[in-house]
Structure formats: structure tokens, C-alpha cells
Design brief:
- The complex is a heterodimer of chains A (about 350) and B (about 350).
- Chain A has about 350 residues and is mostly helical.
- Helix content of chain A is about 75%, strand content about 0%.
- Chain A contains 15 helices and two strands.
- Chain A has a two-stranded antiparallel ribbon with strand order 1-2.
- Chain A is globular and about 55 Å long.
- Chain B has 13 helices and 13 strands.
- The longest helix of chain B is centred in the first third of the chain and has 15 residues.
- Chain B is elongated and about 60 Å long.
- The two termini of chain B are about 35 Å apart.
- Classes of the chains: A mainly alpha (about 350), B alpha/beta (about 350).
- At the A-B interface, helix 3, helix 13 and helix 14 of A face helix 9 of B.
Chain lengths: ~350, ~350
Amino acid sequence: MITSAPMPESFSRKGLQSLPLARSFVTVVLSTLALLLVCWIFAPSSLSWGALSGSLPFAAIIAIVGLGQLLVVQQGGFDLSLPGAVSLAVVVATHYPQQNDALLGQAVLLALCFAIAAGLLNGVLVSIFRLNAIIATIGTNALLYGGVFAVSGGVPSITTELLANIAGGETLGLPNSVFFALGALAVVSFVLKKTVAGRRFEAIGANPLAARAAGLRVRLYQMMAYVFAQLLYCLAGVLIAGITREPTAFQGDSLLLPSVAVVVLGGTSLLGGRGFPISTVVAAFFLNQLSQFALAVGVPYSAQTIIQALALGFGIGVYSVRWRVNLKRTTGSKNVEEKK
Amino acid sequence: MKYASLVTALGVSAAAAAMALGSAGAANAEVPSWCGPKKATIALLDGYGGNSWRQVTTASGKQTVELCPSITKYEYADGQGDTQKSISDIKSMAAKGIDALVVFGDAGPAVLPAITSVYKSGKVIVPYRVNVGGEEGKNYSKFIGSSFVEDGKSWGNWIKEILPNGGNILFLSGPAGNSQGLDELKGMKEVLGAEYKFVNPEPFAVTNWDPALTQKVLTAEIAKNEKIDVIVSDFGPSLVGALPLFEKQGKSIPALATSDGNSLGCFWQENHEKNPDFKLFTVATGNDNVRLAVEWAVALATDGKPPAEEIFKAPVFENSVTGKPNAVQCRKDLPGAIYLSSELPADDQAKAVGQ
């Protein structure tokens, strides 16, 4: 932890504050544009409207879980309970109503209750009992999977017609899930950047000790990060339940790594502090388009995996190099660089 | 007891016997030839029991065991996808004094040492469906495989019937390199000539049998390939969520050769009129593989007569073009996650999957 780094000082310097935002945003947007160009040259089919409208729902899902993970990462934590949380929301939204539209509302409420309970559990373990976030959330994940088995017995169930229409339908030519992702983005961005609570939340993430000295309720804010993250996972789970007609009981498993990847690609430090929600959502689109590109070029599966890993490594690599140069130049302080 | 009471019933009245033959009770009464006179105990060991296919399979295995009155005790253990637990399950069942073990060795060769040690201690042990390596008589009593090459041939023959002049095939299977997919491809290639082109990356498009990934893969393939004449998939039900993508992109759902599932049958019945090219052909999804394995294990443990077959061949189940051997089946009142091809009655399956 870099709790003693001179962050408060840099926070007070406006010029520096605006630079990293621009940099992270510009980096991820440029990477995305470059990827779109490569797609256009080598795999134009991945940019056809049919392909985009088929794959955008999955980008939206990654964006939503990425926003959840972002909140936790901003507090210097890690949320490994994401797979269990998403899977639980999926099975509650499919098994509870048993294809009866009238019960869907209750099912979603039930899923929200589970999400809040899981978030509070994570939050209490990490912020009050001071458990390591990775260990605490792994435990919660196991608990959530217990819930998944209790609800579903591991068996998939078919989704309700209503949910399939809401989550899988289209409005104004765009998949509905994209609107959900944009809505989540708007809320997270507004609260983080334009409200007092949000500003405090970021300050606490940057330096909990200093924030505590300033009289902020550090533990409460850290706990709420886990609760809001769970609410976002729940939203993602309910959407998956609608998008895939017969989701498995383990649908969250494949989302953990992408959720962390988009947070990092979006420019948020894994040590906590400032968060970049818009860049995170753009990164989610980038990551999804990357996998569609790998599928569309039609190379063997091994090569698909390598292409994705290389592009991701390249993206993160470019990003961290520039970040380091930036720190050296702007602060001129060796001290800060070492602490990174 | 049951046997004795049947003999009495037969003796008392011919009419009663005729009624018994007409009812389901007749199957219970007739002791099958694989069930010998020696008393024995049996256990079914699953490497991973957490999906509907496994639950139906387990229920089928139990029902088969119940046909043999010489079996005095039946036990079940679920390895929960954990290789360590699967190994300790196998060893502890043997230590508990169970005479015959039927093993679904999901972990493959990793469970072979445990199987071998149980076999060497003089028990009957029959791994089935997943190849665990080793050889019969040295590592285990008998291995009851499933012929996926045969499935591939059945699909290939049907594709030749509906597309006699060749066409574009999209083949979807599970995780990269899984032997089931490779065997199925081998079967198809034995039947299909060069005029049939596989448009997927070699050897098959990887879906991990995950409906979300299937949807992504299909999105990319539909956009990339102007013309897909037939989709071959070894897990039909995971396609149900993805098939509407064709309509979204303004195309008809193409012909589909796959394995059966209630949700898939119902999907076909609802959508085939809107999609003129949507023909459906399924092979049985293979829940009954366990029956053959149980029959072998019981025969060896009770000194019964072993079945004639050594490999489970999944029969053709549905064909929407000819209606033979069956037209497409759908039971709307029952869960989507059951398999009407299974010998286990549909209502019992619904109970087994807990819905």
C-alpha cells in the first residue's frame, strides 16, 4: 500500500489532476479506434451491423461488472465474489419465476436482497474486520455458490418471456442491454465526480489515512464500495438471464478476469484512488470487440487466445510505460516512481 | 420376495398374468439375464453431478440397479468436479466394502491409479463414457465407452440426405481439443466428401458448451459466412438462445444436426414455420450409457450373463424431414432441461432435476 505517498499534494494541483484523466481516456479511445481499423482491414464481418448488435449485449455486461469492480478497486480492494454474485442473480432470475412473467418482479427484488447481503458481508469483513480483500471475497464467493446450488441444484432453467424481451430486445435499433450499461455508467460517473459523497469516496481510495485524519468515515465508504459493486453484478446477472435463453448456473465464471482487465485498461490504479468509469466502459467495448475480431478472422482457437492475450498485454504495457514517464516528468520525484 | 409373489400370481390366474404383462410391473417382475444369483452391493460414482444431464443419468443408473433383486445396497457419490474428491470417493467406497463400482471418470487418466488399486483389491469396477486410459483386465474390469464416431456418422448421413450436392457446415463443440468433438468430426469426415466444406476453424468452433460463448461464436460466424447450410453441434440445448441471431441478421435458421433436449424440440416446433430451412435431426444425448455400464458391473458382481454390447451407440432420435424414427418431440409442461430420448420416463426426469 502506498499510504504514505504524497498523493494529497498532487490532488491539490489542478493541472496534474486533469492530465491523467485525459491520458487514460485518450489511450483507451485511441486503442479502440486502432482496433476498429484493424477489424475493418482484416475482419470486416466483425463490424457488420448484425455482428455488432449480436455482440454488444456482451460488451454491456462486461461494462457493468467492470464498473462494479472499479468501485472496489478504487478502495484498493479486489472483488473475487463476482462470479458467485452474477451466477446467483442469474439463477434467482430464472428459477424463481419458472417462466411465469408475473413472478419476475419478485425474483429481481429477491436477487437485489441477496446482492445487498453479500455486499454487506464483504464490506464488513474487509473494512471492519480488516481481512485481506482477496481472501474475504473468495470466501463470500464460495458462500454465494452455495446459494446458487441451493436455488438451482446446478441445473439451468429457461428464462421468462418478459425478461427475454426486456434484456434481449432492441430499442431504437440498439440492444436494450446497452442502455442499461449507459444508465449504470451515467449513475456511477455522476455520483463519483459530481457529488460530495463521490468526491470523498475517491479521496478515501487515494489515501485512507489522510482521509481518516480529515474526519471522513473511511470504513463506511469502503463498505459501501462492496455493496454498490454487488448491485451492479446483480444487474449484470439479471441481464444475462434475459440475453441467453437458457443460462447455465455458472454464467458468472467467465466474467471475473474481464472485469479486472477493463478496470486496468481504463486506467484505474490497482492500488486505489481515482476511478475512470467512462474509460472503463470504452475498455469493455474494446475487449469485447477484440474477442469478436479473434473469432471473425477464423484462426484456430489457440491463435485466437494468443491474439487476445498479446493485444491486452500490449494495451496495458503501452499504458504503464506512458504513465511512468508522466510521473517522472510532472513530479520530478524519484520517490513517487519507486512507490509505484 | 417379489419373484416369489410373481410366481404365485402366475399360478393363481392367467388373467392376472396378462394384466401384469400389460402394466409396467412386468418389467420389474422379470429378472434380467445380467442379474445373477450372487448377492452384491453397488455404488455409482460421478465425477461431477451438477447439471440436469447428470441428474437424469444418475436416476437412470439407479433405476437400472433396482431391476436386479440380488443387489442389496446402492450408494451414490458426487465428486463435484474435484479430482481429489473423486479419487477419495472411489477409494472410500471400496473401503466401505462395496462389491461393484460404476465410475464416470470426468478427470480422465487422473483417476486411473485409484481405479487400478480398487480393481487389484478384487472388486468389480467399470468406468464408462470418459476414457480413463489403462486396459481391461489390468486396470479395471470393463470400460463401457460411447461411440461418438457413430454420432458423427449419423449426422453426416443425414446431411448427405438433405444436401446431396454438398454445402457449408458449421461444427460447434465444447472446450478446445475435447476428444468427443474430435471423434465426431472423424465420423462425419468418414461419410462426407470434399463437396462439404467446414466453415469453422479446424477442428471445430470452441464453445465450452456455454450458451453465452455459443452466442458470441455464432454471431461472428453468421456475419463472416454468407451461407451456412447446416449447423452441427454436440450439445443442442446450448444453441437455443443463439439461434434467433439468424432472424436478427435477416436469415433463416439453417438445418441443425445435434443431440436432443426438450427445450430444443420445443424451440423447433415454435420456429420452424417462420424459418423454411430449419430442419432438425438429433441423436439421443446418451443418458442410457450408464445403463449398459451398470448392467456389466452387476453381471460381473452377481455372476449374471454380461450384456452382448460393449460400446454404447446413441440411437438416432428425431428427424424433422422423415419423422423417422420420431418426429420432433416437445413436452411443454415439463422442464426444458430434460431429455425425451432417455429411457427414463419424462415425469421421472422432471423429478430428478428437481422441478
